[in-house]
Design a protein that fits this description.
The protein is built from 3 helices and no strands. Helix 2 (10-31) runs antiparallel to helix 3 (38-58). The longest helix is centred in the N-terminal third of the chain and has 22 residues, at 10-31. With 75 residues, the chain is an all-alpha fold. The protein has a domain at 7-58. The chain is elongated and about 55 Å long. The chain crosses the membrane at residues 7-29, 35-52. Keywords: Membrane, Transmembrane, Transmembrane helix.
Length: 75
Amino acid sequence: MLSIVRRVPWASVLTIAAAAVFTLVTLFAALRGRVWAWIPFALAAAILVREIRHVQRSRRRHVGFEEPDRRNPGT
């Protein structure tokens, strides 16, 4: 159990949570007619997606030169 807690990228979890909250707040403001809120909404949404993809990529096993590429089993 303790090893799982140590492997969690806490900075990424905090970034995802903060970006999600900020995205929802700016979306709410933009939908209420605040035109200026669309820019921070787009930036926060982009950061949110980028950080989620970063966490997903970091949890995958590395494929080096010595190992065959799992995406193309025919070669």
